[in-house]
Inverse folding.
């Protein structure tokens, strides 16, 4: 049954050094505040998993929290490169980063297989391309009925999934809507889960009968962090901070500039800074 | 002097390739501009799908990312990412996949993964994202890329997504039943695959562009079709729609700064 905790206590309760951690959110509802708390608590040797590592993973990698990254598209959307991730891959700074690279289809299938309790994901993909040559976790499997050659990769079953959602209710059920990405799959595939939310409400209303809801007994810990997805967005609460994504490019280019920025904006701050961003970008 | 830029010519030429009946899987950036221009001009009923799960989206401004709120709010419906890739893409529901790339070769294979060796890259690019499966699951693929020697190369450093492989029946031999890249639109010209060799061949040259210019901006020896057309110039209504779209986008993104 999910427990409502402070963000610091929730991270402490769910994420350990050396864990495989999937922080998901496909552009929408990216759990930035939780990522910052992981950095503040100096988690080490994490095996990070995320389809689209963007700014939050650039920060975790640059701060030395990760030993490995599994991903399918690593960039600053619409802006360019992730300079901290590139520095780790190209120059081993702050230390070497092992990568396991996939396609979106592969990772989406692997999360679904993880949630479904299957050992592997099977799909039509990875044909005529080089990733199978550099990623030994990509194999071929023959359909026993048609003989078709399909791609297979291990399912994703992280130690912990971290997501941000719009609301939880007092019983600890979690509600999200809009671009829902792979978050439900990631939580159901993981051993533990941490969900940050914009608010806790008495009732999820109005809602559709098929709203995306994670029952309280599938979630380990909930923390209320208004604005906790910033600079990503929470549909109905605040807009994506596109200017922040553009500004990140300059911050991340330089190691010293990056470290100074992280000290000022993350290490010396707490989750309360996200509430101010939410107010600034509040949905009309 | 032309009343439009080479980039505008490219976007307009790419938009013209789309029809109202198309179901189009849209890449971010140049493809997104072209697809929305088509929707705002001659193809109002085109179904635009972004990999974030938004189906039949009608954004008023161009999204900066593949999952901006604008895409979800203006969509007919939004599905999860696994559903998008499994049912809609792999399920064969998409007629056109519209891609961009960092490097392309003469068979329209694309690289968006690394420049240099994979283990010790000179430049680490973002990676494939949806492209490897878009390239094999959509009925056909359109590609839009600004032309230059850095991007149009004789040999790719990495095969991120399959075009026509090594040419000829390469796709069929791998068991791929879709058509692959049928059009490559650049800021200089339009390429289409030769029916037999599948080598991308220039079939239309944009107004004011010379063959020397195309040759000088391509890393392989360019083949030209027997009959090469001149791409019709952008019409006033096409340019107006494109410029208004960019102006709206700039206002919306700039307002937040």
């Amino acid at each position: 049954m999910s427990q409502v905790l402070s963000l610091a206590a929730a991270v402490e309760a769910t994420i350990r050094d050396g864990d495989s951690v999937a922080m998901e959110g496909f552009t929408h509802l990216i759990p930035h505040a939780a990522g910052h708390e992981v950095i503040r608590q100096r988690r080490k040797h994490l095996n990070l998993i995320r389809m689209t590592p963007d700014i939050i993973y650039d920060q975790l990698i640059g701060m030395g929290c990760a030993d490995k990254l599994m991903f399918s598209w690593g960039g600053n959307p619409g802006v360019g490169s992730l300079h901290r991730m590139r520095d780790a891959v190209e120059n081993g700074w702050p230390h070497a980063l092992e990568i396991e690279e996939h396609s979106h289809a592969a990772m989406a299938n692997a999360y679904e297989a993880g949630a479904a309790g299957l050992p592997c994901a099977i799909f039509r993909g990875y044909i005529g391309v080089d990733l199978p040559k550099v990623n030994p976790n990509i194999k071929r499997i023959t359909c026993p009925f048609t003989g078709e050659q399909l791609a297979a990769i291990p399912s994703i079953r992280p130690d912990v999934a971290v997501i941000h959602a719009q609301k939880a209710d007092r019983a600890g059920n979690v509600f999200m809507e809009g671009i829902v990405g792979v978050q439900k799959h990631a939580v159901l595939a993981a051993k533990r889960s941490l969900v940050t939310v914009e608010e806790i409400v008495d009732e999820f209303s109005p809602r559709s009968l098929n709203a995306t809801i994670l029952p309280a007994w599938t979630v380990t810990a909930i923390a209320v962090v208004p604005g906790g997805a910033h600079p990503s967005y929470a549909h109905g609460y605040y807009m994506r901070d596109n200017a922040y994504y553009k500004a990140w490019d300059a911050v991340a280019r330089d190691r010293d500039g990056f470290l100074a920025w992280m000290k000022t904006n993350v290490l010396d701050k707490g989750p309360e800074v996200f509430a101010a961003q939410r107010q600034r970008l509040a949905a009309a | 002097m032309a009343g439009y830029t080479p980039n505008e010519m490219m976007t307009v030429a790419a938009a013209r390739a789309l029809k109202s009946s198309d179901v189009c899987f849209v890449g971010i950036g140049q493809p997104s501009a072209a697809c929305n221009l088509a929707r705002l001009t001659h193809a109002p009923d085109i179904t635009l799908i972004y990999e974030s799960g938004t189906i039949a989206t009608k954004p008023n401004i161009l999204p900066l990312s593949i999952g901006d709120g604008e895409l979800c709010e203006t969509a007919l419906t939004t599905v999860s990412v696994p559903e998008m890739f499994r049912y809609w893409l792999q399920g064969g529901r998409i007629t056109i996949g519209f891609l961009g790339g960092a490097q392309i070769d003469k068979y329209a294979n694309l690289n968006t993964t690394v420049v240099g060796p994979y283990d010790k890259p000179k430049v680490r690019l973002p990676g494939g994202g949806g492209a490897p499966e878009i390239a094999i699951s959509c009925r056909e693929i359109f590609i839009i890329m600004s032309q230059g020697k850095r991007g149009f190369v004789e040999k790719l450093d990495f095969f991120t997504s399959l075009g026509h492989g090594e040419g000829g029946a390469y796709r069929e031999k791998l068991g791929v039943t879709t058509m692959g890249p049928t059009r490559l639109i650049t800021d200089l010209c339009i390429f289409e695959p030769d029916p037999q060799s599948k080598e991308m061949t220039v079939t239309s040259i944009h107004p004011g562009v010379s063959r020397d210019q195309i040759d000088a901006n391509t890393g392989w020896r360019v083949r030209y079709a027997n009959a090469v057309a001149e791409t019709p110039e952008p019409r006033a209504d096409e340019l107006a729609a494109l410029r208004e779209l960019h102006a709206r986008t700039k206002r919306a993104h700039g307002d937040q700064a």
User: Anything to note?
Assistant: Chain B touches chain A through 59 residues (CB under 8 Å). The longest strand of chain B covers residues 223-230.
